[in-house]
Design goal:
210 residues; single chain; globular
């Protein structure tokens, strides 16, 4: 292995963080399905959970192929996800959907910066997961419908989104450190700017101000 190649530990940690993100999406979608206001929403969210589960399984399989124990690795990265979940508990079903839309989008943008930690095969697996927009597409459509049907949700969800993005940016900077990316303050700022630009576009798709 050349000096420029990522170490096995860095590869496994990176894949485990991505995998835990997908596992969290499975759990959130399943919980949202249980409290969904209609059978149609329940069915759709079970589908979303299935998509996230498939992505998790792809990342877990690649981790195991590299010799990692996915359960042990997930236990190692779990505390930071739990701490974030405790700080950002949604008050209702719509806020939970918004949390998925905002967090998953921002996290995926930060995760892309970590692809440099991966070997070619792992990068292809991770990129396939990160390029899968089925979850965010569903959340965008359903949130847009909710805002159209209940305009009073607009200001509340916009405010909730701003709180979430603040937490997500703090989390993103922690991820940069956890991913062991050798970047200076200027590079971190550039990553954060790209993240915020993409976030603003996602919020604009809901006719909300970021």
């Amino acid at each position: 292995m050349s000096a420029a190649e990522p170490t096995a530990d860095v590869r496994l940690t990176t894949l485990a963080i991505l995998a835990f993100g997908e596992l969290t999406a499975v759990e959130r979608a399943a919980a949202d399905a249980q409290s969904a206001p209609s059978v149609r929403d329940r069915v759709d969210l079970i589908g979303v959970a299935g998509v996230a589960l498939g992505n998790y399984e792809a990342l877990a399989a690649r981790t195991e192929a590299l010799g990692g124990d996915i359960a042990v690795l997930l236990e190692d990265v779990e505390p930071s996800f739990t701490a974030l979940r405790e700080r950002t508990r949604p008050r209702d079903w719509y806020e939970s959907l918004m949390k998925g839309y905002v967090f998953d989008g921002i996290n995926r943008d930060f995760y892309r910066a970590a692809l440099v930690n991966l070997d070619g095969t792992s990068e292809r697996v991770a990129t396939s997961v990160l390029d899968d927009t089925r979850q965010s597409d569903h959340l965008r459509r359903r949130l847009a419908q909710a805002i159209s049907e209940h305009p009073e949700l607009s200001s509340r969800l916009a405010l909730w989104g701003r709180r979430l993005v603040g937490e997500a940016l703090v989390r993103g900077r922690q991820l940069i450190e956890r991913f062991d990316l050798a970047v200076d303050d200027e590079a971190v700022g550039a990553i954060s700017q790209r993240v915020m630009t993409n976030h603003s576009r996602r919020m604009a798709a809901l006719d909300l101000v970021a």
